[in-house]
Write a structure and sequence with these properties.
Low-confidence stretches: none
Largest sheet: none
Structural class: mainly alpha
Mean pLDDT: 83
Helix content: over 70%
Radius of gyration: 23 Å
Amino acid sequence: MSARRPSPRPRIPRSLIWFFVVLIGLIVVAGVAGMIYYAGLEDVTTTK
């Protein structure tokens, strides 16, 4: 059996997948933190 190279298939590299996972996670965390921060600011301004 001759050693043949794997055919070049358009595969997404694992690093790119992890990059998107981290990016989406950061966006979600930033959105939630922003909402909490904004709500906290509104509470501060309304309780004055």
